[in-house]
Design brief:
Length: about 280
């Protein structure tokens, strides 16, 4: 009789994250398909929801730093977009849209104060929104925000080989809306968000990856934060939560509906400060 594969044993690793309070969060413009300025945002509710994310990360034993929000920059709460970090090297974002461009200076200043030597991208690229370290390499998304040419720049500055992946659906405008790194050898992703070639690449690299349904992807269930065992993800992604449990992970559901109005979730809000290996 065929045997049932053993559930992998997953190990949590203590992490360090940079978050930004949504003090000035609002949807006053539209730069992705999720944003509709006619839908009001409850900033107080957004702050309370963001606080549940911060408390959850701290409660799991992770270190959380904060960057000071700036007036007039409502999307600064999505701190992960501000820089790509790998092995202590920092590539500060060059935002595609002028509405977000001033965020880069705030991130550059924070990293300098924190003892890093950041480099600002010369080409449009949006930090950990499109650059996700895993297993000695970086998965890099190209699409509405980051160009394939920027992948080469990131490879040189961050010092890791880059695997280029092309996004094919405007709803999934950053890589971290369509794919989540779960551990050093496991990911979950939504195949329909990628081109045929990129799907072939992902299948070759991660043949046992968790594949999201359209329903779970549509609630940004893939915009998740993992420490190698515990996975913080939107609570509406029920199917992904079940698949994570079956693969040995512990899902930690969170409610962030106000931030979803701008196309953001747990990962958008948490910039992982990958240490020097």
């Amino acid at each position: 009789m065929p045997t049932t594969p053993a559930v992998p044993t997953r190990t949590a690793v203590r992490r360090r994250y940079l978050l930004c309070p949504p003090t000035y969060f609002a949807v006053t413009y539209s730069i992705n398909p999720w944003m509709d300025p006619s839908h009001p945002v409850d900033t107080g509710a957004a702050l309370r929801q963001w606080e549940t994310l911060r408390r959850a990360l701290r409660g799991l034993g992770h270190q959380v730093e904060t960057i000071t929000p700036q007036p007039g920059l409502p999307d600064m709460v999505f701190a992960a977009n501000g820089a790509a970090v790998a092995d202590g090297r920092v590539l500060v974002a060059r935002f595609r849209h002028p509405e977000r461009a001033p965020e880069a200076a705030a991130h550059r200043a924070w990293f300098r104060r924190a003892g890093y030597r950041p480099t600002t991208a010369a080409l449009p690229s949006e930090g950990q929104g499109d650059f996700l370290p895993i297993g000695g390499r970086i998965l890099a998304g190209s699409g509405p925000r980051t160009s394939t040419a920027a992948h080469r720049e990131a490879e040189l500055i961050l010092g890791r080989p880059v695997v280029s992946l092309s996004l094919a659906d405007p709803r999934y405008y950053h890589l971290d809306t369509a794919l989540a790194v779960l551990s050093e050898d496991q990911v979950m992703y939504y195949p329909a968000a990628f081109t045929t070639e990129s799907n072939r690449t992902l299948h070759a690299l991660f043949p046992r990856a968790i594949l999201a349904t359209g329903q779970d992807a549509a609630v940004l269930g893939l915009n998740a934060v993992s420490d190698g065992r515990r996975v913080l993800l939107p609570e509406a992604a029920h199917g992904l939560a079940a698949q994570l449990e079956a693969d040995g992970f512990v899902p930690v559901p969170l409610r962030l509906p106000e931030l979803l109005k701008a196309g953001g979730g747990p990962k958008c809000c948490a910039l992982e400060l990958h240490p020097t290996s």
